[in-house]
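Recap for those who missed Tuesday's class. We walked through two folding examples back to back. For each one, the amino acid string is listed first and its predicted structure tokens come directly after. Nothing is annotated here on purpose, so try labeling regions yourself before you check the end of the notes.
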Amino acid sequence: MSTEDNKANVRRWIEEGWNQGNVAVFDELAASNWINHDPGFPNVRTLEDYKRWATENYNAFPDVHFTIDDLIAEGDQVVVRFTARGTNTGDIVTPMPLPATGKQVTVSGISIVRIAGGKAVESWNQADYLGFMQQLGVIPSMG
């Protein structure tokens, strides 16, 4: 697969999977043995874990929208820098139960996705989870 094909895979993951709420597209775009590495969500490792977590996120942030800020590919890896925005109108389940706050949040992050045979096989994620919790009012902001 070309780097452009790999970028198209990641773009669909975000646009169709996250922005349109089509969890089924993750099955199409990822290998069945796909693995997720995210220090903020250590229990979200497999594709089934990820789909469950995505559904929980839609319930907690029904207006969630991801903007692709940068999309860069080299070899079998795609790097996406993103900004996610949404309003917390439902309870958060993972990583810990939190009641809905009604607050809007904006979270930036970066994911590196490795693709083999046209499918995502592994991803590494880093996002501003501290800022996310501060915006929800769960953790006090400095100053």
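Example two. Treat it independently of the first, because the proteins are unrelated.
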Amino acid sequence: MSTDVLLAPYDVNQEGEANLPNPTQEKVLNWVDAVRATPFDEQDHIPVLYLQGGNGSGKTRAIMAPVIELLTQVNKIRILWGRMDFKDLKLSVIDKFWEVLPRSLVKAKSEQYHYYDIRQPNNGTGRIYFNGLKDLGGFGSQEFAVIVITEAHEITEQIYRTLKRRCRQAGVPCMILMESEPPNQTHWLEEILDPEKENYDPDVERWHVTTYENWDNLMPAYKGSLESMPEAAKRKYIYGKSGFSVAGKPYYSGFKPHIHTGEFEWNPDRPLLIGWDFGFHFPCALITQLDLQDRWIWLREFLGRDITIQKFGDYVSEQLNLLYPNAEKRHFGDPACKQSNDQSEDTSWQILNSKGIMVHIRQSTYRERKEIIERRLSTLHGDKPALLVDRRNCPIACDGFQGGYHYPEQDSMKEYSDKFELPYADGYYEHVMNSGEYIAVNVFKAFERKFIRTRKKKGRV
């Protein structure tokens, strides 16, 4: 039986002709060819290609093309294509897969186990499984040559590690292909790419893919919707850079990166104003200073990760002495630092005080802090705003101002006050932003309100 078919893995144009691969899609084909050229008995690791890209950048089709080639050319190959939720996989991948590969090539299938046997030349057969990845118990001892993970940011690192151990089919080259939208900076996908992290995986090769690579293949209306997004969102959803998810309205209004950010040096003749936010997972110290025109400069942020306040305090003190020798320092922090916690018998305030760090505190509301900071964002001192952020040394704060620190989404609003909405407690950006808020409420004067009470007096209309 002839298996010659015309495939268009990169979709078709308006004339009905198959699109050619864009540069990254061509690179993926070459990468897979290089793995295939390696004798299976010489593979000393499982190569992992991770495509991190913007919306509509062609990531899925970049992977689909070599997968179909392997499926129709390598006899007895077993391929697993998965996503966290099977319903999402069907909508994002499976329907598109069968638009490319004719169902006439299906030799056999199992509705229960979601696999399909695909006809090959010379009576060969390749098998592909489509599965959700929430529960991997159904695979038993199954082994695969190729594992594809769609929207890898949705799964856990444990799932990834488990799948990697299943990528071991004998007799054929093995590989993992992943694609995802950019994750948060603290996501495990970021950590396995960092040689300084304990869970670093040297097998992973990440490529950034921008939507503009696939621009000519997108509908005009879709391109218009992408280009209308705020700049902070474009960085993630067009340029494919890691960062926050733009899930809600930014808590602080008026922040413009081209106006409120720059590169700044500290003034040794002026004190440092340091804000502290505590917690084991992401303790934070924010280093700021007022310049000669009373502009509040956010100079540097220090964010810990799963570290005690004892060790974090020592680290920050060491960095302060190194970067700002002999500087006068004034410390401000969360009033909760005087409360005991389960990490130590001493309070955070007592621990830092024992290291010569006297943290000043003041009770305040989110509203008070928001008004102080927004007034500074909207006020000019000279020719620049009264609040400026160093883009080199405060990347988390920059993202926080642009939406990482945001109001809750609509479905969570019921948990918040009707009179004044609180920022969403995201567990990451909030620590840097809160550190700045503690400085603000201690150093700058809050907005004064005058309340006039009127009442009727007896005998008067």
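Answers for example two:
The chain has 13 helices and 17 strands.
Residues 412-420, 448-461 have pLDDT under 50 and may be disordered.
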